[in-house]
Structures are given as structure tokens and as C-alpha cells.
Amino acid sequence: MKLIKPYTEVLTDLNQPFLKEIERVARTCYKSEDKISEDDSSARELVRKLIARGHEAMIEFGDITVKFVCDRGVSHEIVRHRVASYAQESTRYCNYSSNKFDGEITFILPPWIKEDECIDNDAEDSWLDALDTCERSYNELIKLGWSPQQARSVLPNSLKTEINVKMNIREWRHFFRMRCSNAAHPQMIELTRPLLKEFQAKIPVLFDDITY
């Protein structure tokens, strides 16, 4: 059994000129292409106005792909965002008892258990015992002839999964407003708040108004 912390990896180059692309398509609506500046100053001004007016259809002209490494429970919440494309690690075809996975199952350590602290209380011991039982049961079922898609029925929400998520910028804004709020699940917040900060640091204007 292996325990890891969750993380995200942005697969899209965030240095690309998102604002300039949005400006080009948005100015078609107003036939104001003559106002496009050589730098991105006109794009910044226009995009700010679009967001302030709620005219967010224009910011759909930009896609960003992110890989989430998280537990299955969190991934189930992510895929509820329907204006998106997904590619997820398959428990039907991944045989976690094989040498490819070093014969062990990887689980996600939740934020309420500190990685650098000894797990020595009853609740944490009970959680670890449950994961150990799941891993042993899974491996035993594989040995007894079950396929991975059959044996996966004993795997818990704590199972590590990898899911690639592509959304347009408008949907990412909705995603962050929903998933960075104090009402979001703690394991979701652990992923989304640092990701939002990365977006805000690298992409001007488009995410600056989202706070929590």
C-alpha cells in the first residue's frame, strides 16, 4: 500500500496569449478590430469589460487542460461539470496487483491526516486498516481469477486516480467559483485553491475577480 498527497499539473501552456485571442473574436461582434493594440492593453481592457457585463460567451474561446491526481471521490465531483472533456485512469483495465504498479495500490492521503506525523490515533488506524483490507481483498480476487474490472468492486473512494480535464475558460471560472468556496469538500479545496492561484499568477484578468 502506498499513500500520496494529491496534486495538479497544468498541461496547457499558460503563457499563450489568451487575452489577445479572446479580443480578436470578441471585436468581431462590434467590428472594432481597429482598436486592437500591438501590446495586450486593449485586450485587457476589453476582457475586463466583458466579464463585468457578464458577456462571458467570448471567453469560451480558450481551452485549458489540467491533470488532477486525486482520490476517486473527488474525481466524481469533478466530472459533474459537464461542459468539459475527460480522460481518466481506468480501474477496468489497470491491474494494480501487477508489476507495472509494483504490486501495490496507491491511495490518497486526506488533508486532515498530516503526512509528516505518525498515524497513531484510533480513527487513523481504522482508516489504514480499511485500506489494507481493500488491498488484500483486491489482490486475492485477482489471484482467484477475477479480472481487474471485477476486483475493482472492493476498492474505496480513497483510491488514487488520474484524470485529465479540459474546459474552456468560462467553465473554469464556474468550476473555481464552485470548488474553491468554503462549502466545497476539503479534499477539493486542497486541489483547487492552489490551482486558481496558479491561473491568476500566469493569466491576467480572466480569474482575478474570483475570491474565496
The CATH class is Alpha Beta
- Secondary structure: number of strands: 6
Whole-angstrom Rg:
21 Å
The biggest beta sheet reads: 4 strands, antiparallel
**Widest beta sheet: strand line-up:** 2-3-6-4
Shape: elongated
End-to-end CA span:
35 Å
The helix/strand order is EEHHEHEEHHEHH
Count of alpha/pi helices: 7
| Quaternary structure annotation | single chain
Would you tell me the overall average pLDDT? 95
Q: What share of the residues lie within helices?
A: 40-55%
Structure explained in plain terms:
It is built from seven helices and six strands. It has about 210 residues and is of the alpha+beta class. It has one domain (about 1-15, about 65-205): Gyrase A, domain 2 (2-Layer Sandwich), CATH 3.30.1360.170. The longest helix is centred in the middle third of the chain and has 22 residues, at about 120-145. The two termini are about 35 Å apart.
How are the SSEs placed, and which strands pair?
Elements lengths: L1 E3 L2 E4 L7 H13 L10 H13 L9 E9 H7 L6 E4 L17 E3 L13 H22 L4 H4 L8 E9 H11 L6 H17 L10
Parallel strand pairs: 1-5
Antiparallel strand pairs: 2-3, 3-6, 4-6
Helix pairs in contact: 1-2
